[in-house]
Amino acid sequence: MRVPGLVVTCALVAFGGLGGCGQASTDPTPAPPAGAEPAAQDAAPSDAPPGMVWIPAGRFRMGAVGGEARSDEGPVHEVEVSGFWMDATEVTNREFARFVDATAYVTVAERAPTLDEIMAQLPPGTAPPPEEDLVAASLLFIPPNQPVPLGDPSRWWAWAPGTDWRHPEGPSSSLDGRDDHPVVHVCWDDAVAYASWAGKRLPTEAEWERAARGGTDDAPYVWGETPVDEADPQANLWQGSFPHVNTTADGFMRTAPVGSFAPNDYGLHDMAGNVWEWCADWYRADTYAARTDPVVVDPTGPVSSLDPDEPWAPKRVERGGSFLCHASYCSSYRPSARMPGSPDTGASHLGFRCVLSEAERPGR
Fold first, then answer.
1. What is the rounded radius of gyration, in angstroms, for the C-alpha atoms of the chain?
2. Residue 113, pLDDT score
3. CA–CA gap between residue 266 and residue 211 (Å, rounded)
4. CA torsion angle for 168, 171, 176, 181 (degrees, to 10)?
5. Bridge partners, residue 138, by sequence
6. Which of 213, 235, 259, 318 has the fewest Cβ atoms surrounding its Cβ within 10 A?
7. Could you give the percent of the chain with pLDDT greater than 90?
8. Residue 147, preceding bond cis, omega within 30 degrees?
9. pLDDT tens, 211-253?
10. Separation between Cα atoms, residue 348 and residue 243, nearest integer Å
């Protein structure tokens, strides 16, 4: 949520990926047996849209239980998804700049919030922030210089005026040398605006997980069964001691140029780490529990949001984890991991990619 200054802690109560995502669940429920029978997979149409790869139709087992999974990732259930195109990488600063140049679009982080916007997303009874704090800003990751309690994300997040997609590390920073990095400090509304301009849309949560799994059911990670190895990084994640020491064993302190790590079996890069990615769906912790059909076909998510930690604030789904994920605090580099995010708030580690069905292509 767009919450400045004195109430930034409230914005981080259910911080959905803001530098971590809370400790993994200790749910002892064993994983269900493998063996879901996949649906017949369709062949890719011959003329791929630029920068996109084909994700074939098929059935997969959505969600996870046990191990690192949290309660909102279960129960595991069968989902069938129609074939679609997906951006091979996250949307980059170069691509987002083309959109802004063509439309003169101003992102939410570049606009000063109104008091009504702020108060509508805060717990009842919260005192309003001072008027001088109602300035254009975004949530900026600032690593502390010493170990801090991991239960207080306000120790490494700040509501930072002058921080936006053009100034990803504060007003004195720029995009120099970052054309191929994923655009950040974009909220859900910004991502939808870009997707509409590009003739695409945001993926559903089911499409995103189907794509991230690369055709492999039940593997705990995008890259397969192998645990995270800081000596041989499989994705742009946090190495060292979160949140104060990043050894940059993967070569990157913050975001990495898209495509810096090997793609999954569908040809998609950075489906784990680098930046969180917006999905189209409203977030509910009980989304999967409410599904009763033996096979759910092309689900588009619930009709409304409910985050038990912030029931007053509507949330959208974020997927994939980011460069801030570390096993000590956040293991959301897993394909089943899901997080809530306020749709009007961007952050240092939050971006997106787009999808498109064959029927949605112009002229089809």
1. 19
2. 87
3. 7
4. 0
5. 160
6. 259
7. 78
8. no
9. 999 998 889 999 999 999 888 899 999 999 999 999 999 999 9
10. 14
Task: Measure CA of the first residue to CA of the last residue in the chain; give whole Å.
Answer: 38
Query: Are 13 and 138 a contacting pair, CB within 8 Å?
Result: no
Please state the domain extents for the chain: 1-364
Contact 277, 352 (CB under 8 A): yes
Angle at 145 between CA 334 and CA 238, to 5 degrees: 15
Sign of the four-CA dihedral 186, 188, 189, 194:
positive
Q: Residue 249: is it exposed, middle or buried by C-beta count within 10 angstroms (0-12/13-18/19+)?
A: middle
DSSP-assigned states of every residue in 129-175: PPGGG-SSEEEEE---SS---TT-GGGTEEEEET-BTTBBTBTT---
Extract the tokens encoding 235: 């994705």
Q: Which DSSP symbol is given to 112?
A: P
Question: What ranges in 160-215 are assigned the alpha helix state H?
Answer: 188-197, 205-213
Residues contacting 75, CB < 8 A, separation 6+: 32, 63, 65, 288, 289
Cβ-contact 92, 181 below 8 angstroms? yes
- pLDDT confidence of residue 2: 55
Specify whether domain 1-364 bears CATH 3.80.10.10. Answer: no
pLDDT at site 235:
97
